[in-house]
Amino acid sequence: MSLYSEKVMDHFKHPRNVGVIENPDGVGEVGNAKCGDIMKIYLKIENDIIADVKFETFGCGSAIASSSMATELIKGKPLKDALKLTNQAVAEALDGLPAYKMHCSVLAEQAIRSAILDYYTKHNIPFDPELLKACEHCEEDE
Amino acid sequence: MQVYADNAATAKPKKAALEEYTRVAEEFFGNPSSLHSAGQRAKEVLTDCRGRIANLLGAEENEIIFTSGGSESDNQAIESAAKFGRAKGKTKIISTAIEHHAVLHTLEKLKKEGFEIVLLPVGTDGIVKLEDVKKEVDEKTCLVSVMLANNEIGTIQPVEEIGKICKERKVLFHTDAVQAVGHMKVDVKALSCDYLALSAHKFGGPRGVGALYVRKGAPLYPLIEGGAQEKGKRAGTENLPAVAAMTVALEDSLAHLEETNKRVTALRDKLIANLKKIPHSALNGDPVKRLGGNVSFCFEGIEGESLLLLIDDKGICASSGSACTSGSLDPSHVLLAIGRVHDVAHGSLRLSLSEETTEEEIDYMSREIPKVVEYLRSISPVWRDLQEGKRTYIL
């Protein structure tokens, strides 16, 4: 199938880090079922480092692949680095996404951010509220 | 195992049709508009095909125009009726919410040009109500356009009755029969239609060719200007090999129609019964008043594109009405029209069978599709919420 790159298909068909973490330190869920994709990220944090990360995704092939790739990119990384993960980085790591699927990578970026901010909130760690911007794709659909 | 279950998108071309294509392309390469003998021989083939197609539809030979396919036929019929209506001050067009985009987008364009467009709703069974048609047809109406069978959910519309209403009220009536022709008995007189669109590749003919039936006396204007082909209603050198292949494909389909339908309908019902066993799933459209080969489902908690790609990996070719497969934000307008909310319309799957579909293929799909649905649900946060009672099941 030429719609997606081989890497997208690989991560879609064999997603890394899929599942849940019991008693996670941070959870983030973005998107909505109405617009066709929801991503949920679970984090285990040790000494400001992402010790473990799992995801669950309702969505298309590129949404599942983006979640998988994003979790790979942040696993074992310090929180401050994970917060810098951009959707472009996710898309590039997947050897690109079709233009109308770029929002999937945006969702992945936001799901991770949202999970980290959940961790910060639970531990009373101050953060920049600017980091909580919504997905334009989903807002448009409301 | 390889299973092609997307025949409503395009059917596998019939061998006899492909052979006819090659034969006509080789032997009758003359331009039917040329006066020399090679041209005239080609013209004879064209006339012969026109007569045979007309015969299969219960029409007259001079009521058939060859086009590039269903979309062109739909466009030309609607544009012609609209142009004729406007000249008489009639600017209302009635259609349905579940039409193909070839109809809907033409109507949207006419709306911008000042036409009043009324899209009738359908019930949860995917069928338009006759009372709604009766209520809307008035002296301002220039055209009613209702498809014979829906492309996504396969539901068959009461076109015969709608045709009668239009005939009584003297309103032009067009039916998009692209999904129906070759798969059910279609007789233009019985349908009382003024226009009927068909496309060859839906019944085993080649792509890029179709026809438009235009009742004698109904207005028709060309979309394409140029030479005097097709009685000046459709310019451009005729695609003769494709026309001949279409003719053979239609004859072949209709020759075995009853036995094919009996067999395919039984396979369809078996597949429907098997997929219904998947919890929180639902068949889309009326279970009986539907095309013999159409199976359309919604599965709660998953998204259609990922389902399509994973069953494709198992060799099953199908289609979906999810937003992700259309490249737009909204799922299929047909699924929304039958009352499926966005959340479940995204999880749709259409399997369209053909005369070549086997019992083994039905068994294979019945075995593999539930596994993929189950897997996708196992990684879906929506499904988890549904199971944990944080979200309410819709299906």
In words, what does this structure look like?
- The complex is a heterodimer of chains A (142) and B (395).
- Chain A has 142 residues and is of the alpha+beta class.
- Chain A is built from six helices and three strands.
- Chain A is 42% helix and 19% strand.
- Chain A has a three-stranded antiparallel beta sheet with strand order 1-2-3.
- In chain A, α1 packs across α2, α2 packs across α5 and α4 crosses α5.
- The mean pLDDT of chain B is 97.
- Helix content of chain B is 44%, strand content 13%.
- Chain B is built from 15 helices and twelve strands.
- In chain B, the strands form three sheets. Chain B has a seven-stranded mixed beta sheet, sandwiched between helices. A three-stranded antiparallel beta sheet of chain B has the order 9-10-12. In chain B, strands 1-11 form a two-stranded parallel sheet.
- In chain B, α1 runs antiparallel to α8 and α10 packs across α14.
- Chains A and B meet through α1, β2, β3, α2 and α6 of A and α10, α11 and α15 of B.
Largest sheet of chain A: 3 strands, antiparallel
The helix/strand class of chain A is: alpha+beta
The percent range for strand residues of chain A is 15-25%
How many separate domains of chain A? Answer: 1
Indicate the radius of gyration of chain A in whole angstroms: 14 Å
| Integer count of domains of chain B | 2
Please report the two chains with the greatest interface, counting residues with C-beta closer than 8 angstroms to the partner's C-beta.
A-B, 31 and 28 residues
